[in-house]
Amino acid sequence: MDEFRSAPPHPAGNAAGAASPARAGVVAGASADPLPCQDILRANLVDFALAELVRQHRASFAPLWTIESWAKLLIWLALNSGCSGDIASLEAFAAALEGYLARRWRAPRSPRRYRYDLAILHDPEEAMPPSNKRAIRKFIEAGKKHGIDAELITRRDYAKLAEFDALFIRVTTQVNHYSYRFARRAEREGMVVIDDPLSILRCSNKVYLAELLRRSRIPTPPSVVLAPGGLDAAEQVCGYPVVLKVPDGSFSRGVFKAENQAQLEARSREMFDHSELILAQAYTYTEFDWRVGVLNQQPLYVSQYFMAKKHWQIVKHGSTGTRLAGGSTTMLVEDAPREVVKTALRAANLIGDGFYGVDLKQAPNGDVVVIEVNDNPSVDAGVEDEVLGDQLYERVMQEFLRRLSDISP
Known about the structure:
Elements: H1 21-28, H2 38-57, H3 67-79, H4 87-101, E1 116-121, H5 133-145, E2 148-153, E3 166-169, H6 178-188, E4 192-194, H7 197-204, H8 206-215, E5 223-226, H9 232-237, E6 242-245, E7 255-258, H10 261-272, E8 278-282, E9 288-295, E10 298-306, E11 315-317, E12 323-325, E13 328-331, H11 338-348, E14 355-362, E15 368-375, H12 390-407
Parallel strand pairs: 1-2, 1-3, 3-4
Antiparallel strand pairs: 5-8, 6-7, 6-8, 9-10, 9-14, 10-13, 11-12, 14-15
């Protein structure tokens, strides 16, 4: 056991060489009680870890890749927290920490009225957020019904993210955006997060997504990835009209249609100024797009988004920043075409088990193609909740509750 022992560190706030009262007896061997009380063990461990690990030896620790290395670390901590090294003393150490090591350590918040704390990341200034204000209120109300206290946070609250048990992202996500940093931080903290960073990474890149769908034999419009100098492939694979997309566009932004070669060349020059690659897809006319909301690999809602008036997309963005959206209607999952729902689930389940919105088109002959899969899908009061009403928000909160219960001691 001597190989694990260290000289007593200098606790923060004490003079050099002065042992803290909690440790003075047990480390020097002067304690009459071979089994220190749990409060002393916890105090000694925290004091020792801060002084020894963080300030002195943090850089020297080898990665804890094996069970043996973890066991050695815990024995080392026990000995330097006042345990004698025999089996009874080490078991007492383990019992003192069991309840703490079984759950994530976090900063304390105000006394709880609810079982869990949920952070809803939003941007009150965002022009086209994934959820309108009324929907956000409904999420908060639904959370309370299931023992979840939901609190709105913004990008300024990054420092206090670890105070929560879970994170629900309700801002438009991108990899080069603070929403992705929040998702990664939440995942590192062991929090439940929807949507997780891997889902954001996969869905934000339309080029990656198109290749994933192709390899998985999910039906899509004829598509090709373009690089500068390779525009001929768009004509050969897609024909005209052809839809051009930057990898990280959203809400119809960064998406253009070219009717002929001249427009293809002009648009692609503009887009290549901002992106090394462009996704080209054959244009498929329909009066509306299908949107299937998928949560934990199960369909949640099915909507039809109609094209904006005299426009080929569901949202028409004006040159002055104006936006014109088409109408919508929502139906029960069982009332939607079976092939639409089935194809949407196949596509979404390639991404993960988060919350997704799958966009599809259905040709007059019934053929269904996937346009894209979106993480962080729209849930607006009066649109996606048209049929389910408050049940939609409750089902999302129930999924948070299920995941939280799975990781709680």
